[in-house]
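Course exercise 7: structure representation. Students receive a sequence record and must write out the corresponding structure in token form. The form below is the worked example handed out in class, using YolD-like family protein (84 residues). Read each field label carefully; the graders check that inputs and outputs are placed in the correct fields and that the protein name is recorded exactly as given.

STUDENT ID: A-19
EXERCISE PROTEIN: YolD-like family protein
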Amino acid sequence: MAKKAVPKRPTRDEFELEELGNQLVEAKQENTEVALTVWGWDERVCGRVTELDSRTRLVHVMGGGEVTKIPFLDVMKVESVDRF
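STUDENT ANSWER:
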């Protein structure tokens, strides 16, 4: 049986990954609500970054009363959410 062709995650250079990491650290430190665009997910993940686990490379986001764990390399975009 032939394997199904799975689309590959877009590659990003070190500068892009570092910038993304900086945005996540800043959001965690300032307790800012963010919307994350995640590769392969239909909807964005909204909430506050509660933990950046360097061992497992997971970003923990608390939103809607539950924690979502997202692999760092799957995070494509970080946007702050302004709530007034």
